[in-house]
Amino acid sequence: QFVPPYTEECRSGMYPPKGPTFKGAVTWYTVNLDLPPAKRWTDLLGMIQVVRDLANAFVPSGKLLDIVDRDLPLLLDTLPFPFNEEIRGISAASGVPLGEVLLFNIFYEVFTA
Amino acid sequence: CTSVVAEDSNGHLFHARNLDFGLFMGWDVRNKSWLMTEKLRPLVVNVDFQRNNKTVFKSTSFAGYVGMLTGIHPHAFTLTMNERFSLDGGYIGIMEWILGKRDGMWMSFLTRSVLENATSYEEAKQKLSQTKLLAPAYFILGGNQTGQGCVITRSRFCCSLHCFESRWSLTTNYDHWKEPLFLDDRRTPAMKCMNQTTRANISPKTLYDVLSTKPVLNKLTTYTTLMDVSEGRLESYIRDCPDPCMPW
Fold first, then answer.
1. In sequence order, what DSSP letters do the residues of A28-64 get, joined into one string?
2. For chain A, N or C: smaller number of CB within 10 Å?
């Protein structure tokens, strides 16, 4: 129907994915759990630029960004191992400030209200 | 989000989900899309977590995100997490954490921990239903044997389990004991399409059809994942929802 909620008859024949609702397959990466936590995500972070863009999307306001960059890293050491070390490693490898990587990793709890 | 766990007539279990995220976090008027959803799409990655060169679990995640929202522990169980809104939500959990009360678990870290360490459906179910959380959530869990499927609706402290029992599929994005909000009812169309598909025809292919039907597919849909536990297979596709399409 062409008025909200735009319901339609049950789709069929959509697979294999194609057409306007399909924007691409997802790329595979390997994370080696035998590596120290801080090194596990380094290879995957060739996507540094998109991670940087995401940080801007989460905290577009400059003042808010200051708080995130200055105060949020204090929370990192309270997070359970190995997640705290992995977040630290992602920040170091990507160059994205620690507070912004940390915010990205706890966005679920932040946005559930 | 919408998650479906289903078993076919032979007791073969499948699990699929649409990840919808970015509601009210900026609307791009020109492109008629959510800003956050657009930012997340290029970050979607499939990750094969290995130890001693062997797969421990596989997941669809976001680059830079160490927790998990979707994953498979091959030949054991599949797991997806859906967002559950509540006034007693993550803010209170985070405040308690900051004030030093740290007996709860961060949702995505629990999901990752279960995918990494649990070795059976029952063990995963126990951990997901009994661990204290910082925020409410839905966990949708599928096993590797007939009858193993549950939606675990979590508050921060406890849980409600909605399992297969006499059913062959479970669909969720809302508390199962409530009518969905009339403004946001993706559950009814998804269940209608599941019933129309019939148990005999359930497969990753037909689940993709269900999750491609509007409004189950909507402008918040970032990716669709299809999982087959006995094959240990996970595949994901980045999605878009051209107009006319619901914003949520």
1. EEEEETTS-GGGTTTGGGGGHHHHHHHHHHH--SHHH
2. N
